[in-house]
Write a structure and sequence with these properties.
The structure holds 2 protein chains of 2 kinds. By secondary structure, chain A is an alpha+beta fold. Chain A has one domain: Alpha-Beta Plaits, CATH 3.30.70. Helix content of chain A is 14%, strand content 29%. In chain A, a hairpin with a 3-residue loop joins strand 2 and strand 3. Chain B is mainly alpha-helical. Chain B has one domain. Chain B has 8 helices and 2 strands. Classes of the chains: A alpha+beta, B mainly alpha.
Chain lengths: 70, 193
């Protein structure tokens, strides 16, 4: 029997459009998001559970939740 | 799990108090300089946006009103409002208006014009604000600066509230001149395009 491959969701930041306000950092339940050098938000995808809280909070709407294999 | 609240998570109280105090004594407006200098100093010396990320009471206030109090439409901000030309354009516009305010202050210090006991909203509408002026121990110019600075703070709060209602709670953060400026400083400091 073939193992079931579940698609996981992860957050992706459109880095060039990010204003680095840090709203995403505040709502992330797994501390997967951080503001890199005051320039943009970066997601540690090994910690991200794809809950979408950051995407909902982001005032610039530059975070998207995408499905990834694995 | 909800993160434990830190002392700086309550700075929205300071922001709300600041706006309220301006209705009683305009000289409190001087305290608003903290919101200008602290973010700049953090970005210049630490190379990050620690102020926006942690200490901005105004952002917290919008979060609270738009989030918990449900006053935000929670819609996406239009693309042009998050574009670089708009953000930097608004920063330049804000700077020009700020220097115009400083010039008005200078004229009063120099004795070339009288103190105007008004608050200018949205850079256009002059509101009488004489009830909040009880004299000054220094110079009338200091009071003129207070009126001008409070005008800047009240105007930006109104803009923030409007975009909070129309879009997401902290939409102001997208085009906040201090946020744009500190991000620019961080870019330069960290040599990143």
């Amino acid at each position: 029997m073939e193992p079931i491959r579940r698609k996981r969701k992860k957050a992706y930041v459109e880095e060039k459009a990010c204003v680095a306000c840090g709203c995403c950092v505040k709502v992330c339940p797994t501390a997967a998001v951080s503001i890199w050098k005051g320039i943009m938000a970066k997601v540690d995808r090994s910690r991200c559970v794809g809950c979408g809280k950051c995407a909902a909070e982001c005032p610039a709407s530059v975070i998207a939740i995408r499905e990834v294999e694995g | 799990m909800r993160a434990e609240k830190k002392w700086y998570d309550y700075l929205w109280i300071a922001s709300a108090a600041y706006l309220i105090l301006g209705f009683f004594n305009i000289m409190f407006a001087w305290l608003g300089l903290l919101c200008f200098f602290i973010p700049l100093l953090i970005s210049v010396f630490k190379g990050n946006k620690g102020y926006c990320n942690r200490y901005c009471g105004r952002g917290q206030l919008f979060s609270l009103l738009g989030g918990r109090f449900g006053l935000s439409g929670k819609r996406d901000i239009p693309g042009w409002m998050k574009s670089r030309w708009f953000r930097y354009g608004f920063l330049i516009f804000f700077f020009v208006m700020f220097f115009q305010m400083l010039w008005t202050t200078w004229l009063v210090f120099a004795g070339a014009s009288d103190l105007s006991q008004t608050v200018k909203l949205l850079w256009t509408v002059r509101l009488p604000w004489n009830w909040a002026y009880h004299g000054t121990l220094i110079h009338e110019g200091a009071a003129q600066f207070a009126f001008g600075f409070y005008s800047v703070m009240l105007t930006s709060t109104i803009l923030g509230l409007v975009t909070m209602v129309l879009f997401k709670p902290r939409s102001w953060c997208v085009y906040c001149p201090m946020g744009t400026m500190t991000q620019l400083i961080c870019r330069v400091k960290n040599k990143e395009k």
